[in-house]
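pls design
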């Protein structure tokens, strides 16, 4: 493929011959290789235009820029916006893989990851191999490749979609973050369906969003990029999310006006299992059980069901897919032999911790036990707040380590204690995380619900600049094995 071919259909200016072979596309000059095209991106910290000459020295055959650059030895293609250009030339370079599959995009403040897993589970229950791009990384089959952002750069997205198609995937589910939408990362993705979960304050300040209005405006861009939009009608922002939309619209919720409605939802609890059950009315009538606790799980499941109805999937696949969905690190149950429930969750600040603990309280556990730590070299206020929230909502708090980085673990724990001591909550300190998990398991009583908070899908512990492997699921398995050996 040559440069002129991958620029086809774009607005650009360049007087030189562009029929030159392209081996790759890069936007980091350190990754430039002979025959690659270097795209100058403007970031919050650095401007790629400053590194154009370095890319040429490394072998770049052309530069794509939105501002003039002092490069004479290779063609310089000027475009109105290099981020937008990167999206389109990446799609062309990889052969427009999104056109060979069904692509679903999900936006919203909360619930994107869980909804993505639910939709993928339903699609695969219907016999449709499905890839996924989001918070957990890029997942193709059972392989997960970590990414730096929820919605990666457009080049990475197109490369991942091509790998999915080549590996047999017929669908892809993608989290479309507000930043990803704003930065043109999904511009060349042909979304069949776009899903809106909910909208609340988040990602304000710094390099993120200047205001709630801008945050919302970025999220609603999805509905100018998809064929059908599926929106949570119960969310106050649902109509604002449709401003300027170009797609067909479907809605879901408990509202009688929603196209797909949830009816008779109830919480389900048994040893080792917390979940929800609900029935639907409107466009289809089915009864579903979801092994993820909380009313918000009904919304996520209902949105996933509404998306899959748009795709024409059978009701049986929806019921089956929802019944077996498992989201790594999101209220994730871990099987244990005792008469209690053990969960792993990513809650790592006061807001998310309050949400998960309040949700688990609804199941009236014998005791609610919360184990967590706090990250080093981060806001101390966050630690106070987390301690106070757990002290108020948990029957017992077990304070431990969590990515202490370059701080002393005991200093971080002392800050958490400052917060918890504002409450009447009981707590113990077990600095080593594995031993803290062991403490929770060995002191568990019948009917207890234990949540290991903070790590979620992460499989490392960061200490003094080094990331050590640490997966809580593995720690639990080790503890159970050690207990079994000890009883022999």
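designed seq:
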């Amino acid at each position: 493929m040559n440069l002129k071919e991958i620029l086809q259909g774009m607005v650009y200016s360049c007087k030189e011959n562009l029929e030159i072979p392209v081996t790759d596309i890069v936007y980091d000059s350190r990754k430039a290789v002979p025959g690659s095209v270097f795209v100058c991106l403007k970031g919050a910290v650095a401007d790629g235009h400053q590194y154009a000459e370095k890319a040429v020295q490394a072998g770049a055959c052309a530069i794509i820029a939105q501002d003039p650059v002092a490069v004479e030895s290779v063609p310089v293609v000027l475009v109105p916006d290099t981020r937008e250009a990167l999206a389109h030339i990446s799609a062309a370079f990889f052969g427009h893989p999104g056109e060979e599959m069904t692509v679903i995009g999900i936006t919203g403040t909360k619930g994107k990851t869980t909804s993505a897993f639910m939709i993928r589970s339903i699609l695969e229950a219907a016999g449709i191999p499905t890839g996924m791009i989001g918070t957990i990384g890029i997942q193709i089959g059972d392989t997960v490749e970590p990414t730096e952002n929820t919605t990666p750069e457009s080049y990475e997205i197109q490369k991942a979609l091509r790998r999915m198609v080549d590996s047999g995937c017929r669908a892809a589910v993608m989290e479309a973050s507000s930043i990803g939408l704003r930065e043109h990362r999904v511009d060349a993705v042909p979304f069949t369906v776009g899903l809106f979960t909910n909208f609340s304050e988040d990602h304000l300040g710094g390099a993120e969003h200047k205001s709630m209005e801008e945050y919302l405006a970025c999220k609603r861009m999805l509905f100018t990029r998809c064929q059908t939009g599926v929106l949570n009608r119960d969310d106050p922002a649902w109509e604002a999310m449709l401003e300027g939309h170009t797609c067909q619209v479907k809605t879901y919720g408990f509202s009688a006006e929603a196209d797909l409605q949830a009816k008779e939802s109830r919480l389900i609890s048994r040893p080792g299992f917390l979940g929800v059950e609900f029935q639907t009315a409107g466009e289809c009538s089915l009864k579903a059980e979801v092994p993820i606790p909380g009313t918000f799980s009904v919304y996520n499941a209902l949105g996933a069901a509404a998306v899959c109805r748009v795709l024409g999937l059978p009701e049986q696949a929806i019921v089956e897919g929802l019944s077996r969905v498992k989201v790594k690190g999101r209220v994730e149950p871990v099987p244990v032999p005792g008469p209690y429930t053990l969960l792993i969750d990513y809650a790592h600040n006061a807001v998310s911790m309050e949400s998960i603990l309040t949700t688990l309280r609804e199941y009236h556990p014998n005791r609610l036990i919360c184990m967590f730590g706090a990250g080093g070299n981060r806001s101390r206020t966050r630690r106070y707040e987390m301690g106070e929230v757990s002290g108020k909502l948990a029957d017992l708090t077990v304070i431990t380590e969590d990515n202490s980085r370059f701080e002393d673990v005991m200093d971080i724990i002392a800050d958490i204690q400052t917060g918890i001591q504002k409450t009447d909550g009981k707590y113990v300190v077990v600095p080593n995380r594995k031993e803290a998990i062991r403490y929770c398991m060995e002191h568990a009583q019948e009917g207890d619900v234990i949540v290991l908070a903070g790590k979620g899908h992460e499989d490392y512990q960061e200490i003094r600049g080094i990331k050590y492997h640490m997966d809580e699921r593995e720690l639990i398995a080790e503890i159970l094995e050690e207990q079994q050996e000890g009883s022999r």
